[in-house]
Each structure stands twice: as structure tokens, then as C-alpha cells.
Amino acid sequence: MSQAMLDVSGVKTYYGNIVALRGVDVTVNQGEIVTLIGANGAGKSTLMMTIFGKPQAREGSITYMGEDITRMPTHKIARLSIAQSPEGRRIFPRMTVFENLQMGAAITDGTHFQSDLEKVFAFFPRLKERMHQRGGTLSGGEQQMLAIARALMSRPKLLLLDEPSLGLAPLIVKQIFESLKTLNEQDGLTVFLVEQNAYHALKLAHRGYVMVNGLITMTGGGRELLAKEEVRAAYLEGGRH
């Protein structure tokens, strides 16, 4: 694998006096899909938000393409070709699909807007059909597609995805994960994925990390973790959804 694109080292994050991350080490290499799994409340989303500068890490360091971004404000991080699709989809509900995608492209110079638009519509044809519909009127699956498409419009090298499968029908989940696989294989997009659906996430990922109570407790190849008895017992019992 090529160089580390994202390197999280000894990161501790607090909410007031409560320790949310207790010294986390995670590496994402260029061209990889890396997933972070764990139970609800383990600190997965906190790590994702800490990488993006809100909240900032109190200890440890975060480097992206060799540059220290630990203390960098969120709006500057967004300009470094890192895109985030946060948990809960957070699209602009009053704007149309097209306007949401324009917002995603706002940090680029706009020269590739049309070709990028065609590309995300090829991945998510449903969005093309709904182009002039307000974001808030879309189904949950369509909103998730829009959140990912909006992130892709900023032409990222690294995509941070937080719980893309949350609350979605199995068929839509499958479609979203297949799109991620294609983006990775065809475009070389690097993906760091936080996901409660361990089965889909580990099947997709080159490597995975398991988080428990703000600590990384296990790491390995995606399929390797999928085969581990303790991972299966904790995250996959009855859970091939």
C-alpha cells in the first residue's frame, strides 16, 4: 500500500470533563477503504468529528497527507480535499437536490461541475429523477444518497462517511456500499467509514478497526475481522442485515 493519507495518533477527545476518545491510533492509506465498527456510543462518530476539527483533539495528533491538521479549523480542513458525510444525513431540506449538489461543489472552482454532476447521477440515478425536488421531501435512502453525492461534488481525495446505512432498507444499503466499492476501484477514492452494520462494512473494507469505549481494541483485514469469533459474537449475531 502507498503512504498513509490519514494518520490519527494517540488522540484524546473530551466533552467537558468526560473522556470520549482515550488515545486512538488509526491509519488510512491512500486508495484504501478502512472501516471503524463498534457499538452505539463507543466513540466512532466522535472520532469522525475530531478528524474534521469539531471537537478538536485535546491530546495526540492528526495528520493528513503529511500535514498536521490537529488544530486546524473545520472550514480549512474542508478545503484540503477531505469531504465528510455526517451521521443523520444533514442535507439542506429546503433546497432542491440540484442546489444541495451545488453547495457540495462550492469549494471547487466549478470547471468540472457538469461532468461531476453527471458522474454522481450515474451512481445515483434516483437523484437525477428528483433533481428539482426539495431535499426534505426525499425518502431516507434518497437523502443518504444525496449526502454522499454532495460530499463527492467537492472532488475529495478522502471521504469520511458516518453511518451511511443507518435506518435504511437492506436493498438501499447494498446499493450504497456497491457505489463506494466502485468509487474506490475506479476512481481510487480513499474512504474512512464509520458503521454499525459490521457485516457490510467489513465485507467492503480492506482493513477494519473495532472500537470499544473510546479505545481501539482490535484491528486487521476486513475479512479477517469478519471471521473472528469475538467480532461475530459482538456485532454479527443475527446481524446480516
Automatic annotation (TrEMBL):
One GO term of the biological process aspect: L-amino acid transport
InterPro entries tied to this protein: AAA+_ATPase, ABC_branched_ATPase_LivF/BraG, ABC_transporter-like_ATP-bd, ABC_transporter-like_CS, BCAA_Transport_ATP-bd_LivF, P-loop_NTPase
Entry's Gene Ontology molecular function annotations: ATP binding; ATP hydrolysis activity; branched-chain amino acid transmembrane transporter activity
Source species, domain of life: Bacteria
Residue ranges that the Swiss-Prot or TrEMBL entry lists as coiled coil: none
Domain called ABC transporter: residue spans: 6-238
Signal peptide (UniProt feature, chain positions): none
Keywords on record: Amino-acid transport, ATP-binding, Nucleotide-binding, Transport
Cross-referenced PANTHER family: HIGH-AFFINITY BRANCHED-CHAIN AMINO ACID TRANSPORT ATP-BINDING PROTEIN LIVF
Similarity annotation: Belongs to the ABC transporter superfamily.
Record's protein name: ABC transporter ATP-binding protein
Organism: Salinarimonas ramus
Lineage: Bacteria, Pseudomonadati, Pseudomonadota, Alphaproteobacteria, Hyphomicrobiales
